[in-house]
Amino acid sequence: MTDASVAQASPGTGHGHAEHRHLLSVQDLGRSGIEEILRLTDTFVEVSSRAIPKAPALRGKTVVSLFYEDSTRTRLSFETAAKRLSADTMTFSVGTSSVKKGESVRDTVETIDAMGIDAVVVRHGSAGVPWQVAQWLGGRVSVINGGDGWHEHPTQALLDCYTIREHLGGNDTDFTGLRIAIVGDIKHSRVARSDVLAYSALGAEVTLVAPPTLLPPSLVGWPVRVSHDLDDVLGEVDVVGLLRMQQERMGEALVPSLREYTHRYGLTAGRLGRLADKAIVMHPGPMNRGVEISAEAATSARSVILDQVRNGVAVRMAVLYLLVGSGVSLT
Amino acid sequence: MAERERRTTPPYGGVFVPRTRVMSAEDVRRALWRMAHEIAERNHGIDDVALVGLQTGGVELARRLAVNLEEVDGEAPALGTLDVALHRDDIGVRPVLPEAVTDISFDVDGITVVLVDDVLFTGRTIRAALDALHHYGRPRAVQLAVMIDRGHRELPIRPDFVGKNLPTRRDEVVDVNDEGVDLGELIK
Q1: CATH number for the domain including B61?
Q2: Which value does ipTM take for this structure?
């Protein structure tokens, strides 16, 4: 998949190629690709702060959101990003489409492609669908993974990295020495998988905190430490990233009760006070207030949850511009 | 400084080989001194005048003009930088990536903005700069200061303040650097 990496999307790579590039996994990017996107995001944060927060960089391009799962922030964030780059946008949501009449993913994708598009953001409940869409569309259209099953959510990881850099890293994308805890339903979390890949690529030390039932069956090859006791790690981390309890994906009882889960793994007001001085609290949303995060923690000065949302637009502008506009892959 | 010109000049990339030194560092210093006086004269002082250097070649020149203007007029003008990459008209024709974050931390509404760049060539960078600038507000006027006007305009754009008019061939390259200004070629 290295040939799909946007890390190659830098000037001087040549021009006139018809091949589009994709963002399917954080793994495609590598450290240099992540750093390139974070650097470029600074530019789009600035664009977003202008009196008229738009740039004409993707004029005449069409970006489609193809969402087979519900989403608030990812879909709106991508659409805002595309519009701020002056692209045209189309939205597909499964509830109001011909999927209800039995249309397959492939037919849907090919139908949309036939209308003439330049990029498609794919979210699907099954891992690998964005990759499959990229295969079907060949090099004609850039495919961006907007979250696939339990697999990956690369733009979330990129905006998490940008937010951490903003609060703890100064201007530095080297996370060496940073200690990051990811707490909660790791098993069902595509965010956790992408975060682990991105954080460790930048040099951070990642600890997963969850009951054994909410961890993947195997962590072989993951560059992480594992703990089953939140109170044990709380005082020594710089970042606490909480995950939503994904009850819609749980086919069985993985925790005795939500109350017990909160008691042992929730970021309660009491635990909030035991965090290190400069530690920040993150959550990819949507939050279950009172379950994995208390209202106090969500609204405290340590919470950077709304910064994550704000940065998400700029990060997605950077990704869209790199893939569709920067010129490496356009005719 | 010639990096951007190398990229914006077909065939995009190569090694710059200088042939003739057309201005020395001293010549550039004197030209900047004269241009500062001209900016102050044209605008009857520099109240409500701001300098915006274009990334990357215009940034250092704008900073030096601001220092000179402070001596000429007793007050330093507001100073900003602008990266026009996202407003270029050749996105999709060649690789285009922003090189630096734009910094315009003052209100441009109603003031006179002097765009500063090293070399004026086709005028397309300036068109992009005018487009970008209007996303920040509505200046009362926009003026243009360049160290070198090398001709070959492709758009109806002209400079207000010029360090040196330099007739060139299209395939030549002008490089403004610390030692002065060189004319040469790109070797692929």
Answers
A1: 3.40.50.2020
A2: 0.86
